[in-house]
Amino acid sequence: MKSLLLVAHGSRRAESNAEITVVAKSLSDRVHGNYAQTGYAFLELAQPSIADGIDELVNNGATEIIILPYFLSAGRHVHEDVPEIVNLKQKEYSDVKLHIAPYIGEAAEMIDVLVATSEAEN
Amino acid sequence: MKSLLLVAHGSRRAESNAEITVVAKSLSDRVHGNYAQTGYAFLELAQPSIADGIDELVNNGATEIIILPYFLSAGRHVHEDVPEIVNLKQKEYSDVKLHIAPYIGEAAEMIDVLVATSEAEN
């Protein structure tokens, strides 16, 4: 069962973390034909953790999990922290395929979103 | 002269900051009909600072600056740190209009980027 895990940084602001749950819900609605379940998790400052998010998807039957990093640039979090946690979980779940997708800032469409936002202000 | 300032978090990784300069260049190319100049700046960990970025645009003739926060969620940085710096600069430049655009994570199109990325992995 193919599953998706949206991974965000996490914030001390509850409202900020709540935004991610809304994004994950919208994403789930849009991709449910391709992914049986879509979860969300936070790198730090909020719950569930990435490890907990992976656990939950596996407990619900995931056999493959695409981890989608909701980060704009490839800093330490994208290059080191997220892969480190995912690698540890991969060792724990040797029969589940874990794969990290490109971080969202790398998507070619990001520039379109910036252009649209700047045009709306013009 | 209307100008745009892309504001990112900043990273200890030079490659991550370099990504922002590339994004700013692409953005500049796309919006130059609406904005005479497009700059970039970092909240922390990298240069130029937001204050320096505003200074440079003003020195080059900006009379209005739209600050575009390249942040995915409205944490402390978006709600407090960026506005605080911009407000201080607004007091310094009373004849320049400074305006903060919605942060990029608030754009409706963000969900499309997530869907596209998750579909590419499917």
Task: Set down the secondary structure blueprint.
The structure is a homodimer of 122-residue chains.
Chain A: E1 2-8, H1 14-31, E2 37-42, H2 50-59, E3 64-69, H3 76-92, E4 97-100, H4 110-120
Parallel strand pairs in A: 1-2, 1-3, 3-4
Helix pairs in contact in A: 2-3
CATH class of chain A: Alpha Beta
Rounded radius of gyration of chain A (Å):
15 Å
Low-confidence stretches of chain A: none
Write down the CATH topology of chain A: Rossmann fold
Largest sheet of chain A: 4 strands, parallel
Describe this structure in words.
Two copies of one chain form a homodimer. Chain A is of the alpha/beta class. The first copy, chain A, has a single domain (2-120), classed as Rossmann fold (3-Layer(aba) Sandwich), CATH 3.40.50. The first copy, chain A, contains four helices and four strands. Chain A has helices at 14-31, 50-59, 76-92, 110-120; strands at 2-8, 37-42, 64-69, 97-100. A four-stranded parallel β-sheet of chain A has the order 2-1-3-4, with helices on both faces. In chain A, helix 3 links the parallel strand 3 (64-69) and strand 4. In chain A, helix 2 packs parallel to helix 3. At the A-B interface, strand 1, helix 1 and helix 4 of A face strand 1, helix 1 and helix 4 of B.
